[in-house]
Amino acid sequence: MPENSKKYSSIKVGLVQQTCGNGLDLNLKKLKTNIYDCAGKGAQLVVLQELHNSPYFCQTENPENFDLAETIPGPSTAYFGAIARDLGVVLVLSLFERRAAGLYHNTAVVLESDGSIAGKYRKMHIPDDPAYYEKFYFTPGDLGFQPIKTSLGNLGVLVCWDQWYPEAARLMALAGADLLIYPTAIGWESSDAAEEKERQKTAWTLAQRGHAVYNGLPVISVNRVGYENDPSGQTGGISFWGGSFVAGPQGEILAQALPDREENLVVDINLRRSEGVRRWWPFLRDRRIDAYKGLTQRFLD
After folding, report:
1. What is the pLDDT of residues 49-64, one digit of tens each?
2. Residue 155 contacts residue 110 (beta carbons within 8 Å)
3. Which of 58, 144, 234, 263 is most buried by its number of CB atoms within 10 A?
4. Which of 12, 38, 160, 189 is an active site residue?
5. Could you confirm whether 50 is annotated as catalytic?
6. Which residues contact 109 (CB under 8 A, 6 or more apart)?
7. In degrees, to the nearest 5, what angle opens at C-alpha 281 toward C-alphas 278 and 284?
8. What mean pLDDT do residues 206-229 have?
């Protein structure tokens, strides 16, 4: 395991926001080009969006889509591992994991800069909404909320729907995460009114900025972008709203991608700033851990 680097006072992080087509080879080629672009701009850590190898297949419940899944280690970890090794960067992937026959996960994988697998996180919160039928495909994760140790620090990797759960971010922070990272695929379903679209996007950004504030940690959120049709024809498809961003430990937006186009962001993150923010705002000190038993209950009747 590489030495954990509290030695880094800052790191450059690349966010790859792109569209996804039906051809695996074309998607992989585009991802490789974008990773190289980020590395060429100095990125030491590059984060990809949720389920980046294919279109967002969860718009329908189709058993044939399980053919998209792969083992970990497998073809994608080998392909991206070679890229990580060639560039000397840490990569955060988001894969459809085939664990066993009939057992699949939505899994983030972190590759070390030598191409090895540093660790993985299986998505814990699984949605089941119109056009987001993830419960049909994914078993909830069983690896808990454990940061993944890398040469750049401890990465608190979560996935998309996990964004709405403060408990997940807090547990990653309590376990020593230096950064919170969210590969994401979120957008508007075609029937949403304009006002509702704006409310949804604002809430999405605010929730994650809140995680940064409450935990005194930087947050990296990488969303896909572009329109993807519903193969069943039951809806008008999803327009993924992009807007990938990095927030600092007080929730300040350090950089944000545009909402309507592919874009690679490379952002400097000051890792020492979290220490100062936590001294000014000692939320972890003042937690009433003796009074939170109710959080483990489904509802308090």
Report:
1. 999 999 999 999 999 9
2. yes
3. 58
4. 160
5. yes
6. 72, 76, 77, 92, 93, 94, 95, 117, 119, 120
7. 65
8. 98
- 29 as an active site residue: the answer is no
Q: Which of 98, 110, 131, 4 is nearest to 48 (CA)?
A: 110
Q: Give the C-alpha distances (Å, rounded to integers) separating 194 from 184, 199, 204, 233.
A: 22, 9, 16, 22
Q: Has this prediction a pTM greater than 0.85?
A: yes
The token pair at 2 is: 């590489």
Structural tokens at position 222: 């990488």
Query: Is residue 197 annotated as part of the catalytic site, yes or no?
Result: no
Alpha-carbon distances of 196 from 21, 81, 185, 192, 193, rounded to whole Å: 27, 40, 18, 6, 5
Domains in the chain: ranges and CATH: 10-296 (3.60.110.10)
What pLDDT is attached to residue 8? 86
**Which candidate in 30, 123, 149, 201 is catalytic?**
123
Q: Write down the catalytic residue from 30, 38, 50, 120.
A: 50
